[in-house]
């Protein structure tokens, strides 16, 4: 498990491109028959990806967690982002996930095993895990069951559908929130005007992009913006002090996940356009 320490905005404004990417961009999450995880000290979120092909993969507690098993003091949300169907066994209970299906698993579950239904079309499972103080029941949700919002317009290049899955009015959790945003063809802009939510951090996984497509992910303080050039199936760690907005060379999708102090999706501080620099 890779460790990423928290950063101060006063320091981050001096980072060059290489340091920005090293600190905030996760460039590789999906490799055959591997589970890859990053421990972000920002609200202690774990960001992971798995691509089971020829064998089942077990999510285990890395030494940094200092626990006997991964969910001893954590909760996790899995979402299927590509390939054929995935199977997740949580303490022996089998759950099959299709594209964009989500599985929430609560604190105290000791065994997590991931596999693909078809090795010739292996699944890609993305997950985020936050600290938990109570146990909520395991629950599978298809994207059709999510709370769906249709926002934006083609004229402003931001016509998109937001599926809220793990949140205050959906699948219950201690602090983890998770959903997916899908862009209509011809739309590329997300979250502009930009906003902040100092009560929680956020992580993004960009996916469903062509190999030569890129998203320009904008970050930093409103008056000291920076950007990351992000390719398909790469993730971004967004600290609580940073804006998080993006524009792509074509339409794309992303999974958003949040953890922290507040559990209210609408708790955000909008940044006026004339404040961005």
UniProtKB/TrEMBL annotation:
<keyword id="KW-0479">Metal-binding</keyword>
<keyword id="KW-0413">Isomerase</keyword>
<dbReference type="InterPro" id="IPR011051">
    <property type="entry name" value="RmlC_Cupin_sf"/>
</dbReference>
<feature type="binding site">
    <location>
        <position position="195"/>
    </location>
    <ligand>
        <name>Zn(2+)</name>
    </ligand>
</feature>
<protein>
    <recommendedName>
        <fullName>4-deoxy-L-threo-5-hexosulose-uronate ketol-isomerase</fullName>
        <ecNumber>5.3.1.17</ecNumber>
    </recommendedName>
</protein>
<dbReference type="InterPro" id="IPR027449">
    <property type="entry name" value="KduI_N"/>
</dbReference>
<feature type="binding site">
    <location>
        <position position="202"/>
    </location>
    <ligand>
        <name>Zn(2+)</name>
    </ligand>
</feature>
<dbReference type="InterPro" id="IPR021120">
    <property type="entry name" value="KduI/IolB_isomerase"/>
</dbReference>
<dbReference type="InterPro" id="IPR014710">
    <property type="entry name" value="RmlC-like_jellyroll"/>
</dbReference>
<dbReference type="GO" id="GO:0008697">
    <property type="term" value="F:4-deoxy-L-threo-5-hexosulose-uronate ketol-isomerase activity"/>
</dbReference>
<dbReference type="Pfam" id="PF04962">
    <property type="entry name" value="KduI"/>
</dbReference>
<comment type="function">
    <text>Catalyzes the isomerization of 5-dehydro-4-deoxy-D-glucuronate to 3-deoxy-D-glycero-2,5-hexodiulosonate.</text>
</comment>
<comment type="similarity">
    <text>Belongs to the KduI family.</text>
</comment>
<keyword id="KW-0862">Zinc</keyword>
<comment type="pathway">
    <text>Glycan metabolism; pectin degradation; 2-dehydro-3-deoxy-D-gluconate from pectin: step 4/5.</text>
</comment>
<dbReference type="InterPro" id="IPR007045">
    <property type="entry name" value="KduI"/>
</dbReference>
<feature type="binding site">
    <location>
        <position position="244"/>
    </location>
    <ligand>
        <name>Zn(2+)</name>
    </ligand>
</feature>
<feature type="binding site">
    <location>
        <position position="197"/>
    </location>
    <ligand>
        <name>Zn(2+)</name>
    </ligand>
</feature>
